[in-house]
C-alpha cells in the first residue's frame, strides 16, 4: 500500500480510531447502567457492541502502523459526554452510530479518491455495521418506550439467561421459578441457528 503520510485518509483513520475507542468505553458504561436498571439483555447488547467498536478501532489503527509507528498524530473530533437512563443511553448511542454511518461513507469516498481501495472497503463494510447498531439501539429504545421489553400482546417463549428456564406466556415472570433471578434476566427465546 502506498504511504498514508500527508493524506486526508490518515487523519480520518486516526479520528475514527479515537471515535471507536470512546464509543467502546461509553457502551461499557451504558451496559452497567442497563443491568442496574434490570435490562440484562440490553446490557449484553451494549457489551457486544463495545466489542465490535473495539475491533473497528483495531482495523483502522492497523492501517496507520506502517507509516506512523512511534509518531504522535493529532485527533480532531467531538465526542458527546453524558450518561443517563438506559432509554436515554440507547437514544444517544443510536445518534452516535448514525453519525458514524454517514461519516464512514464520506471517508470511504475520500480514501478511494486518494487511491486507498482497501481502506475505502473497510470504511464501507463498517458503515453497514454501524447502521445495524443504530437500528438495533432504536428498536430497543422503542421496546422500553412501549413497555414491551418483558411483555408482548401475544404468547412467546421467554428464556431465563441465568438457568435456561423457558416460560411460555405474554409476559416474562417477575421472578424465575427455577433460579429465583428477577425478570431482568429474561429475554425472548430466539434460536436462529
UniProtKB/TrEMBL annotation:
GO MF, one example: NADH peroxidase activity
Enzyme class: oxidoreductase
Keywords: Electron transport, Iron, Metal-binding, Oxidoreductase, Peroxidase, Transport
Rubredoxin-like domain ranges (all copies): 155-189
PROSITE patterns: FERRITIN_LIKE, RUBREDOXIN_LIKE
InterPro entries, per the entry: Ferritin-like (IPR012347), Ferritin-like_diiron (IPR009040), Ferritin-like_SF (IPR009078), Rr_diiron-bd_dom (IPR003251), Rubredoxin-like_dom (IPR024934), Rubrerythrin (IPR052364), RUBY_RBDX (IPR048574)
Ferritin-like diiron domain span: 3-148
Annotated protein name in UniProt: Rbr1
Native organism: Paraclostridium sordellii
Taxonomic classification: Bacteria, Bacillati, Bacillota, Clostridia, Peptostreptococcales
Amino acid at each position: 500500500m502506498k504511504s498514508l503520510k500527508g493524506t486526508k485518509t490518515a487523519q480520518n483513520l486516526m479520528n475514527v480510531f479515537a471515535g471507536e475507542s470512546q464509543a467502546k468505553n461509553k457502551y461499557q458504561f451504558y451496559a452497567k447502567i442497563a443491568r442496574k436498571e434490570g435490562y440484562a439483555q440490553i446490557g449484553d447488547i451494549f457489551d457486544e457492541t463495545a466489542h465490535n467498536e473495539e475491533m473497528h478501532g483495531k482495523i483502522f489503527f492497523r492501517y496507520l502502523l506502517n507509516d506512523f509507528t512511534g509518531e504522535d498524530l493529532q485527533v480532531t473530533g467531538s465526542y458527546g459526554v453524558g450518561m443517563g437512563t438506559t432509554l436515554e443511553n440507547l437514544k444517544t448511542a443510536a445518534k452516535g452510530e448514525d453519525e458514524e454511518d454517514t461519516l464512514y461513507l464520506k471517508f470511504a469516498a475520500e480514501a478511494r479518491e486518494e487511491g486507498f481501495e482497501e481502506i475505502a472497503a473497510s470504511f464501507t463494510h463498517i458503515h453497514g455495521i454501524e447502521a445495524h447498531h443504530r437500528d438495533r439501539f432504536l428498536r430497543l429504545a422503542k421496546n422500553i418506550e412501549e413497555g414491551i421489553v418483558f411483555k408482548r400482546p401475544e404468547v412467546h417463549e421467554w428464556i431465563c439467561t441465568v438457568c435456561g428456564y423457558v416460560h411460555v406466556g405474554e409476559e416474562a415472570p417477575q421472578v424465575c421459578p427455577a433460579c429465583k433471578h428477577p425478570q431482568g434476566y429474561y429475554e425472548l427465546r430466539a434460536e436462529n441457528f
